[in-house]
Every structure is written in structure tokens, then in C-alpha cells.
Amino acid sequence: MKFRKTMQLAMAVILLFGSLSLWAGGAKAKANDILPEFKEGNNFIYILKDGDGQSREFTFTTYNKLTADNTKIRLYNNQVEIDPQNYTVDYDRNTITLNKTPDPGAELYFTYSIHPTFEWRELISGSTYIGNTLIGVDGSTKVFKLTTNYILNSNKKVSLYIDGTKVPTSEFTFNLETQRITLSEKRKAPSAESKVYFYFPVTSIAGTKTSGEVAQTNPSLPPNGIETPIGTESPVPSVEPPIETEPPVLWVEPEFHIPSGESYPGQITLGGNGKITINVTTVVIQPTYTTYLMVKNASNEVVRQIRVTPGKSVTYTLNTQLGLTTGGYYIYLKTVNQSGGLAASVPQFVPINLESKIQVFVEGKMQAYTQAPVNVNGNVLVPFRAIFESLGATVKWDSATQTVTASKEGKTIVLKIGSTTAYVNGVPVTLSAAPQLINGSTMVPIRFVSEALGGLVEWSNSSSSVIVFQNSPSIPTTAESEKPAPSEATSTSPILQKISQGITAPTDIVFVMDVTGSMGEVIGYVKETVKKFADSVPSGSNFSIVAYRDINYRSSYKDLEFFPFTNDKNVLKTNLSKLVAAGGGDENESGLEAIHMAAQQLAGRKNAKRIIFITDAPVHDKGASMGKTNLSLGQIINELKTNKITLDAIAPMNGLANTQITQLVNAGKGKIYDIKKASVTLLEK
Fold this sequence. Notes:
alpha+beta, six-stranded mixed beta sheet, 9 helices, 48 strands, 14% helix
């Protein structure tokens, strides 16, 4: 029910900041009749009533008038998307009817995409704004008509966003009378795929239009009514109140939408010939969900972490594609997001045997015997002392009678060479294969002795292996438990090597690393490739780390941490090993704060200066993320230039993050590298 609680808090915020009527797309609602609806990214989310075990039809009342032509509804049940064939939408009656009645308590919601002319309320830095999607975005147009259901009396404090980035007020104008937004000459026209949102404060609303009403003259305009020619309007004032003086934004803990354990919406199917098939069925809403196939060895160390695409079935060969050698492994699926949410499937044990002999695994660990296991009429025999001791039993050998006696927790087992009769606490049991001497070793049937001591035994035909567990394995799937196995990991990505090639003089280098929940794979990559990087840079270089979580609500974690400079590569690796990918909700710290801290530490040092910035998310720019940082891109760019700091980045190659980080890289005269290729094991499928 946390999803509902998040919605209630969000609605409380809107109630706190205004009570004006809201007209949007023909649908009327008042602020004191808050709808269970909110904007997230480029979509709206609408919370339906919970399932009651009887109803199949659910009604909705959205701020925007929805039709089959202007948007697409996607329905979810307990955060898993429902196949569109299993429900119908009646846009005239505002109802959704499911083919099957949802279970009692089922959490239902739908999303719909933002369509041009849609409007919504949004809280920005403690003030309530009306957001509006501009029409006419075609890749060449720089003049846009505002289509709104409100009558405005001011053009003050308006703002324009293109693909999530705030446009400086000096680069656009808003003509109140004609309701046109015009981009300046130096500003490029947004592409046809761009999302262009215009915001005006509710304090500028003088009233609402009647149904079908066109834009009307506002009584607050000058009496001559003369329109300023387009392109010559006075620019919108650029002076805004200092961030520190604005009311704080109420933050609501982000909700994670995927269940763990047996309910995890994904499967790993074991096939013959050492193959596994992966299928993740869930399609979840943002922010930034990433799914991995995780492979651990018997020592609980991660040997492979591979990205998985939801909705796409993929088959891997454990040996040739994943490069796994003979041994026992645990495999599971894991989904994480930047807010620290994590869900995982139940780990499965998988034996791999690339040798010609039978292998035995006890509690997941491969056994090493002086005499190899043998198959006698379908029964696997193993050396008696090794198997009993691995199961925790004490064992005695009577050479005179050629009898083996094993004891554990009040249970005694007696076997005799050549006899098919064994005794368990004095009760005779008939064996399908008698113990025997082979090359001087006393061999006993592994299935019988293991099951007699309470173990579970399986035979893996595909790997010619015996698997014995006395208890179901308990394999942790938390980020803290996922320590890499250095001897196993192999990187196919040369990003750090390429960066080192551009370092030709002794340099002081700071790794500025985002360590939020979705960064586990990348952190593992840096840990495993940094030694070769450090060995290849010129002698006299020093290394440091600034770790940050710009979305942290767990008080046990530091938001921003500096590790002192060192020229000892082992110390560098030790410091990196302390970084664990985890995180939570938005705080004021951000990538810009972390770069600023690194620049401060570099200031005044004699060597050349370099920052390697590693993140999968946008930075919190003061101009675009009001209330989340006190720094702007412009300030950090000036700081890089002033201190002559080179900045390289391992970051996304598209979206807002790329737009922002590319500016930093250009200012630092460095290069940007694709974070998707920062992988210990990179498999292209």
C-alpha cells in the first residue's frame, strides 16, 4: 500500500499550495477535489480503486479529457502490466473493464502519455505552477502557440523546458496578449521528437475560459491593445528569488514496484547442454529500472553480472558465452533502481562440469576426492571418509571386519564392504549397490549415506553431477553481499585504458562516482579495471575518490565522501572496495556538488589535474532542478576552466544526463564514454 501513501502525500502538497479551479482539456476539477493522479516524467499515473474480488469495472476522472486518439492507456495490477487484450477502455464513459475480476486488495493503476495541450498542476520549489504541453514541435518551428484553459494576467515567472532541460529566460519570450512563446535566434528549434513544456504560476491566473472560448483580451493589458511584433517582446525577467529563501519541497519516498522471491516476475529455465533461458516479464514505470542476471560462485562472490532486457527471452550457454568453468554456481535475476529499490528472484544452484569424470557438490562446493567417484549400475560411489566428514558426521573404520560406522546427531549408520545390507540405528536397510574397495579406497553409495543423514540428493544428467544439500541454500541478494571475485572477472571494455592513454604527465586524478542503487555493475567494472589504469599512468600521479549518493534516505550512508589522495595503488583499490551501490530519496547533494568537492581538493596541487566522472543519471542543475542543489552547470564549468581541470565522463550517451554531462566534458576538454560499455562482462545480444 506504499504506492497509495505516496499518492496521498503528493496530493497533500498540492492542497497546501492553492485552491484555484483547474480546467484541462475539457475536464473540470477543483483543487479541493484532488484526483488520484500525478505526473511522472512524460506520463501521468492514475490510481484506481483496489480490487474487491467482485468488481471488474473501474471508473476514472482525469484532469485531461482522454480519447483513443490523444493518448494510450497502460493498465497495471500490483505493478505488473496487464496485457491489453485482457481489458477494454471506454473513453466516453471513463471506465476500464477487466476480463477477469482482480483479487481483493489488488493495487490497480494506469498510465497515459502526455499529449499536446494537456495541462497539469506541478509543485516547483514550493510554488504551484500549471504545466502545458506545447503543440507544433516539428524540428524547425521556433514560435509556439499556448493553448490553455486559463485567462492569464501576467507573463512573470514563466519557464520553458525542452526535453527536461530548463531554457534560460534570455533565450525565449512569452507574449501575454497573443499567447505565443518565441525562441531567440541563438536557440535551435527543438526536434520533432522533443517534449516541450511551458509553465506559468497559478498566481498569474485571472480566471478560466468557458467551453469553446477562444483567447480573449485580458483587462490588465495596456489600453492601446497593440501587440508587440513577434521576436521583439521584452524578455521575461531573469531575476528569481534565491533558492535558499523558497519554501522547501516536500519529498515523498519513491516507491519500488517489483516483488522479490517467488513472486519476482522473471524466470531462469535450465536446459540441456549447459544452457539457461532468461525471461523477465515485467514492464515497470520509471525511474531507471535495470535488470541483471547475477552469477555467484560457491563462496558467494559475484563472477558475472549481465544486463537483461525485460520482455525479451534470451538463451545463454554457461560455458562458451558466460565463460564459466567447472564448479558450482548460484544464479538469480535482480532488478534495481536509482532510489535504492531492489528485487531478486530465488537463487538457483547450477553445477558446471567440463571434465569427463563425475563431480560431486556438497552444500554448493565441488568435492575433491583422492579416488574419483564411480558409477556402479546407476549408483555413484564415493570415498567414505570424505563424504561423511563433508556432511558433518564422525566416522570410524574397522579393518578387521571391513566395516564403516558413521554418527551424527543421534543417528548411527553402519556399512560393510561387499554387503547390500546397511544399518541405520540398528534397523537393516537394503542397498542397491554394496560398498566396495577401489584402488585401495573404501567407496560407499552417496545417495544412501546422504539421505540417511537427512540430506537432499539430486542427479544432474546434463553435467554428470551429484548435488547434495542438507538444508536449502540461503544466498543473500543485497547489494552489500555482491562482492566480486577478482580471479574470475574479466573485462571486455577498455574505457579506463583509453583514458590513461591521454595522460602523459604526472597527474592528480579524482574518481567522482555515483554510488546509487543502479550503479553496482559500473562500480564493479571500475574496481576490476582500475589497477591496470593506475599502472599505466605516469609515475608521480596520485589518486582520490569522491563518492556521492544524490538520492539517499538511509541515514547510515554518507551522502558525499572524500577519500584522501594516495599514490599507493593498493590503497586506491581498498578505497574502491568500500563503495557499495545503494541509495534512496532525493537530497540536496548531487553530481555537481561532488565535482565541486573534487575541484576544491585539486585546487593548488602541482600536478596536472583530472576528474573522471562516473554516473548513470543527470546532475541536479540549479537552473533545472530548483531546490535540489545550490550549484549550476555554469558555475562548475567556470570552476573547471579556472583550475585547468580535465574532465572525462563515463555516462549515458543520450537523454538529459548526456546533454548536461557533455557540457562538463567540453569545458574540461575531455571525452565522454558510454556507461553501457562499463561492464565486467559485456555480452552483446
